[in-house]
Design goal:
Layout (H helix, E strand, L loop, with lengths): L28 E4 L3 H5 L1 H10 L7 E5 L3 H9 L6 E5 L2 E5 L4 E6 L4 H9 L5 E4 L8 H16 L6 E4 L6 H11 L6 H10 L5 E4 L7 H11 L7 E3 L4 E5 L7 H7 L3 E3 L3 H25 L4 H5 L2 H15 L8 H12 L8 H5 L2 H8 L1 H9 L5 H13 L17 H8 L6 H9 L2 H4 L7 H17 L1 H11 L2
Parallel strand pairs: 1-2, 1-6, 2-5, 3-9, 6-7, 10-11
Antiparallel strand pairs: 3-4, 8-10
Helix pairs in contact: 4-5, 5-6, 10-12, 10-15, 10-17, 12-13, 12-22, 17-21, 17-22, 19-21, 21-22
The structure holds D-mannonic acid.
């Protein structure tokens, strides 16, 4: 038996299931990007609003890259189980907010119509860093144009990706899709639609067969879309909504609505995501499969602690960073989250720019050391070889994979030139760092250590010289 609307009532009583009538209304939210993150984060917030009796938060979910996932979710009526597990305990829940599904590539018109539907009040997005393409701007603008032409009110369009100022970036992308004939549409967009910035946080690894097996055991039905996550979740969103009454509603379900999203975004990107990328590359090169297997190693744990305390925190506007850091280290160690280092290393070329350079530049401006980031960058260079220290080959899953591997291959014969070539890339490091001789020299130094003695020895050497 499969999890679906008809088997929902047969689930064990301990599993929390939707306590409201699903699909009685048209969805009020169109969500782009149906990956694990959305389904175990925002879809559960909207599930809470639906449980509270507000029928406007059903989701029309749009798969941007994975038609197979949309098929599986359709076969389960949009239902899936989420295991919420950490030191506090283990519970299973089946959120019920996902009511409709489409595939962006093959069902584009359905997506445009959904954005334009009178019942739609929000569009939310988790399309990943590389998803902010002109095609995305065009898709949104096409839907919004129909709304404007039909005389419908504007909506809230919330980017929830790990990009600094994500709302501003999305708004600019949508407006760029407009042509010279779209003057009126763009004026309507500015006046009626809201593009709040937001920071979303919850660690949700991609689904694994192990989680599916655990779901089968807990639910006694098959669930091909089951997910695993931690208890912690955070959603901080700018107080900027097409319908201002949404602020209080979101707050009632645990979302933080504020005028200062920036400080939360920068802390999350540089502390959480910055450490994630460092550990992911380190794990990939040393053959450690999960974040928990990295943070459990004393010298990696100390490295991450120091990276955050010494090189990231001094440049944050968030003042409670020490508590934030300690909470992150505990979250990274969650044994239930088999968070694959290769999953996090995916798209590193798109992630590094938000995660590392701002802290390095901050240190440079203060004349302070950036050795931890320099070692991280050296490990990134080593990572582009595509083979770990045990001789196991791995694929680079990155839009820049070919160019990175072509540059990275040179480290076998001309390591220093290779480091210079990879550090010269402004798409990764921005415009200032590629000109900084000290940065280049320190990354070159650590890269030499990594090649000669291995990543672990380089980490230990850094910690020994940097007490
Ligand atoms: C991770 C994030 O895959 C990655 O790049 O760093 O998905 C991370 O788990 C989330 O941002 C946590 O909120």
């Amino acid at each position: 038996m499969k999890l679906s609307a008809s088997t929902l009532t047969a689930l064990p009583a301990s599993i929390q299931t939707p306590a409201y009538k699903r699909k009685a209304h048209a969805p009020g939210v169109v969500h782009l990007g149906l990956g694990a993150f959305h389904r175990a984060h925002q879809a559960m917030v909207f599930d809470r609003l639906l449980t509270a009796g507000d029928t406007r938060w059903g989701i029309h979910g749009v798969g941007m890259t994975r038609p197979d996932l949309v098929d599986q979710l359709r076969a389960q009526d949009g239902l899936y189980a989420v295991r919420v597990a950490d030191g506090q305990g283990v519970t299973w829940q089946v959120p019920g907010a996902l009511w409709r599904m489409s595939v962006a590539t093959t069902e584009r018109d359905a997506v445009v119509q959904a954005i334009a539907a009178a019942t739609t009040r929000w569009v939310t997005l988790t399309v990943t860093e590389k998803g902010y393409t002109p095609a995305l701007g065009q898709l949104l603008l096409d839907g919004l144009r129909l709304r404007q032409q039909a005389g419908l009110p504007g909506i809230t369009i919330a980017s929830c990706d790990n990009l600094q100022g994500n709302g501003h970036k999305l708004q600019a992308l949508v407006k760029t899709a407009g042509t010279t004939h779209d003057g009126e549409l763009l004026r309507w967009l500015d006046a009626q639609c809201a593009f709040p910035c937001s920071m979303v946080d919850r660690i949700v690894p991609a689904a694994t067969p192990e989680v599916m097996a655990a779901a089968q055991k807990a639910l006694s039905v098959q669930d091909q879309c089951a997910l695993s996550t931690e208890g912690f979740w955070e959603w901080v969103i700018e107080d900027c909504f097409a319908d201002p009454t949404d602020a209080a509603l979101l707050q009632s379900s645990g979302v933080r609505v504020t005028s200062d999203v920036h400080s939360y975004e920068e802390a999350k990107l540089r502390m959480l995501n910055g450490s994630h990328t460092a550990m992911a590359l380190m794990g990939a090169v040393t053959g450690r499969p999960y974040i928990a297997s990295c943070i459990g190693v004393p010298h990696i744990r100390t490295f991450v602690h120091q990276l955050m305390s010494r090189e990231v925190a001094p440049h944050l506007s968030r003042t409670d960073w020490a508590e934030y850091r300690d909470a992150l280290i505990a979250r990274f160690g969650n044994p239930y989250l088999k968070h694959s280092v290769h999953q996090i290393a995916t798209d590193s070329s798109q992630k590094i720019p938000q995660r590392w350079p701002p802290s390095v530049l901050g240190q440079i401006a203060q004349g302070a050391s950036f050795e931890h980031h320099a070692l991280g960058a050296a490990v990134f260079v080593r990572y582009t070889l595509g083979v770990d220290e045990n001789g196991q080959a791995y694929a680079l899953n990155d839009p820049q994979a070919d160019s990175l591997m072509a540059l990275g291959a040179a480290q076998r014969t001309e390591p220093d030139a290779c480091v210079r070539a990879l550090l010269a890339r402004e798409d990764l490091w921005g415009t200032t760092l590629p000109q900084n001789a000290t940065w280049i020299a320190r990354v070159t130094h650590w890269h030499q250590q990594v090649l000669q003695h291995g990543v672990d020895a380089a980490f230990q050497q850094l910690l020994a010289t940097n007490t």
